[in-house]
Target: NADH dehydrogenase subunit 2
Amino acid sequence: MISFVLFLSLLSLMTNNMIIWWSVFLMMTVIFIFLNKNVKSYSSLINYFVIQESLGLMFLLMNFGIFQFFIIMMKIGVAPLHFWIFSITNNIFSYNLMWFLTFQKLPFLLILVQIFWFSGLMLLFFGLMVCYLQMFSLKNYKNLLVLSSTESFNWIIMGVFMSLINSVYLFIYYMILMVMLINKFSKSSSNWLNWETILVFLNMPFSVTFFVKIFSLSEIFKFNTIMMLVMLMMMFLSALTFSYWLINMSVKFYDKNQM
Model:
């Protein structure tokens, strides 16, 4: 499946034909349904199929202006157009969750690079603020992990606007580490939180999202220094939101009956 997704990604990068791109969207939907058919999470599969195919039809019909840029962002689940992803992730775990947050986004990212709208940088910036504010209202560990992944993906796409090669490298690094981490940390929906998870997603130095954000910030610094300072303040907001995990771990009972 990974080899097939890499082939579809290469195909979408080599051509700018709308019909071929729409075919890639359809094949990615089929792959996701095939991988999740044994989980029996039919509500997630139906939601994903309806959302993706509706957006795919809109992509074919609205082939003018900047509409396709917004449609691709919504198909990937980039903040602030990420409102639909929680209806999918609530019923998928382990490798299927990892696949949804990493490999499922790869062909869409390469298509987005070809039709990018430079003013969309401000939309991504607004999406980061939405993520940080939403983190304050979430109480579910798994939803916090999904939202943290969405926020990190926003950073990667902002880096794409500045430097394509650096961002592709960061995305590959991000995918490899998420493959190792998410499968370990999402086996159960209730009691999988531990100190390793907190240190990884709290933007600690040398953790997963730390390098993604530092390299993205270094690219944005070449373009707009004021925006970089604002983003550093927002990264502090991110640390505050994940302090919820720190508090819970500090008072957590390891006896499941007492949780």
In short: DSSP finds 13 helices and no strands in the chain. The chain has a mean pLDDT of 78. Residues 225-250 form the longest helix (26 residues).
